[in-house]
Design brief:
Blueprint (H helix, E strand, L loop, with lengths): L7 E12 L3 E2 L5 E2 L6 E4 L1 H14 L19 H4 L9 H11 L1 H6 E4 L9 E4 L2 E3 L2 E6 L2 E7 L17 E18 L1 H7 L3 H12 L15 E10 L9 H6 L1 E5 L12 E5 L8 E4 L2
Antiparallel strand pairs: 1-10, 1-11, 2-3, 4-8, 5-6, 7-10, 8-10, 9-10, 11-14, 12-13
Helix pairs in contact: 1-6
Amino acid sequence: MSKFENKVDFVVLVSVKNANSNGDPLNGNRPRTDYNGFGEISDVCIKRKIRNRMQDMGNEIFVKSDERADDGFICLKARAECLSKIKSQEEFAKTACEKWLDVRSFGQVFAFKGFDCASVGVRGPVSIHQAVSVDPVEIESMQITKSVSGERKNEKERGSDTMGMKHFVRFGLYEIKGSINVQLADKTGFSAEDAQTVKECLKTLFVNDASSARPDGSMEVVKLIWWEHNCKDGQYSSAKVHRSVKVKLSESVSVPTSVDDYDIEIESLEGLTPEIIDCV
């Protein structure tokens, strides 16, 4: 495995059309928005999709969703049981990072009763911001009716569970921003090959992710912009690099309905040329 030596920044542009990009359980599962109407996708949601893609590529991951628990373990404690007798926190963290790609990428807190190490924290080198839409998004709600009741009190009455609601974003263009830190990569053993895996996960973020709320094709990665600096700390701050991506609505468009309604410009930074991957 090659050592990860140069800082990386990235921006992913994601289009959402007639889909629930990330439902908020505290708001009736409506797509997340801020108080100004801009759409949001939580960093936790994005990392879940990256983990799923890592798993699809044949990598071992620690935080698996229940329906993807293909190793027979029903909880994180059971999955970490193989490390329970390790007494050294340093050895525990090292072994966990070697075993699970998501741990050496995103980090993890191990705090389980009965383990010889009471609590071990790993800080991962890959950081992901919550995604925010370029413009405020329009959210629509649709009342739906199931043809069959889940339960009925008698034959004549329909069950209350036959009625429901679906919420979706009519259209939105979201920006996902992130970075990979060299110093933390050294500590977890995150390699140059791991960085390429993360890049591939970002390119194919919505593969095998379809659901009733997100039909196939309703969410897609439009563009991945990947900057590899020439040093550990980076030639520029991550904030400046992320700001170099300028996305704005075309002057002739009032209501966007596709990514073609936007002008996308990447401001030049001296000595730092990004890899631009068009995914559509």
